Amino acid sequence: MSTTTPSADPAGVYAPGELSAYAAEHGLTPVGVRPPLKVYLQQTWQRRHFIVSLAASKAYIRNQGGYLGQLWAIITPALWACVYLLIFGVLLNTSRGIHNFVGFLVVGVFLYHFSTACISQGAKSISMNQELIGSLQFPRAVLPAATVLAELFTLIPAIFVMIVVVIGSGEHFQASWLLLPFAVILQWIFGTGFAFFFARMVVQFRDFGRLVPFVLRALMYTSGVFFSISHYVGNHVTIGNVLSHQPIAIYLELGRGALLEETQVTLDAWLWGFGWAFGTLALGFIFFWRAEEKYARG
Question: What is the pLDDT of residues 39-98, one digit of tens each?
């Protein structure tokens, strides 16, 4: 393919649009312009290795600076589980209707905190990385994706602790345990999609960031983290269906169904898990992409 080299007049001035056309012939695009969705998706996929490296770096440095270092990735959810066990299991007695409340609570707390970390950190992924955005040209979707992947890396050692506690609570290995990675992957995909939504919202509406903690707290009390939804809704069938089919509750059910013998998971729950994960990812990615040109100014 032949190209035409732009030529300037004696004063060194190029014709209007000539340099832009020449740059476009060589694949150069203006900074801050949103590419077509297909191109944007390809550009993001081409940077998958960078996403993994950035996520690994974020996961590693998060807990550095203290004597315990990376152990905090395990200690933090374990401490939360102890607090919730004392408050909700002993003082408020929300263990009614649950045979293995320790296993039920630990799985719920660990997986709930994974989702909330994905959402809260993903929401700040653009606003907290303006220096990187201002110095390099890349699809901004890389940042929410890497942030949520970092949370997945942080969860992995905590999962082993969760399994040890579940075994200590009286559970025994069964074939359904092999489904746990699939439940976590679906939860991670959902978290990535949600991060795309919240990252754009925080950039465009700064005050939205202040609402995120309230959203997460509402999810905690409506997702059955430390109580059985079916036991507490009683005869309120509609309310029970709404609460039990919202995404966080679905992923807690899938995780518990994999590890706890008393929790039986139906095919319907897995279908809801797939639907929430890939539906949220697709819609979140498109929603994020539509404001791509605004992030450099965020």
Answer: 999 999 999 999 999 999 988 887 676 677 777 877 887 787 788 778 876 776 666 678
Per-residue pLDDT averaged across 281-294, rounded?
95
pTM of the model: 0.85
Burial class (CB in 10 A: 0-12, 13-18, 19+), 83: exposed
Report residue 10's pLDDT band, with 50, 70 and 90 as the boundaries.
low
Query: Tokens representing 2?
Result: 């032949």
* Residue 126 φ/ψ, nearest 5 degrees: -85, -50
Structure tokens at 130: 């303006």
Q: What are the structural domain ranges in the chain?
A: 1-30, 35-297
Question: Is the alpha carbon torsion for 230, 234, 238, 239 positive or negative?
Answer: negative
- Per DSSP, the three-state class of 145 is helix
Residue given tokens 């290995």 in the structure block: 173
Q: Which of 49, 68, 70, 71 is nearest to 59 (CA)?
A: 70
User: Are residues 211 and 71 in contact, defined by beta-carbon separation less than 8 angstroms?
Assistant: no
How far apart (Å, rounded) are the C-alpha atoms in residues 20 and 28?
9
Which element (helix H / strand E) includes 292? Answer: none
- Residue 298 and residue 202: Cα distance in Å, rounded? 9
In the numeric block, which tokens belong to residue 126? Answer: 């653009």
Using CA atoms, how far residue 12 sits from 8, 18, 25, 28, 166, in Å, is 5, 13, 21, 22, 74
Sign of dihedral through CA atoms 108, 168, 66, 145?
negative
Radius of gyration, alpha carbons of the chain: 23
Q: Which amino acid is at 32?
A: G
Chain Cα centroid distance, residue 1? 44
Q: How far is residue 159's CA from residue 87's CA, in Å, rounded to a whole number?
A: 23
Residues whose CB falls within 8 Å of the CB of residue 56, separated by 6 or more in sequence, listed in order = 150, 153
